[in-house]
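Lab notebook, page 48
Experiment: co-folding of the full assembly
Goal: obtain a model of how the components sit together before planning crosslinking
Operator: M.T.
Materials (sequences as entered):
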Amino acid sequence: MRKNDFAHQVYKLVKKIPKGKVATYGQIAQQLGKPKAARAVGNALHQNPNPQKIPCYRVVDHLGKIAGNYAFGGGLMQKKQLRAEGIEFKDKNHLKLKYITIF
DNA sequence: TAGATGACTAATA
DNA sequence: CTATTAGCCATCT
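Observation: model returned without errors.
Model output:
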């Protein structure tokens, strides 16, 4: 394993997502220079070597929807965490698209 | 090395 | 709205 893995880049970028905002897998992939690698980004987070350092709950799909119960405390906890950061939901599973951005 | 898998995205019906 | 098809890319077996 090299320290400059694709996954390593993903973690680094996810950690930089500002509070109160979220990013899509596609956006992260694009920041890495591979806009088609959204799927690979999801896989990288699935490995999730540092759930305590990586705010994977700020990463959602292109509709602002939470992936599922793969995160630290489950999908429900994830939604609560997002709401605690000032992010509002459009409905039960979809965030308001205005929050989907990096920087 | 090759095939299967998945926390994706887009297009189509 | 949901279901299906297809393309994409890193990781796993």
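Interpretation: Chain A has one domain: 3-99.
Next step: discuss with group before ordering constructs.
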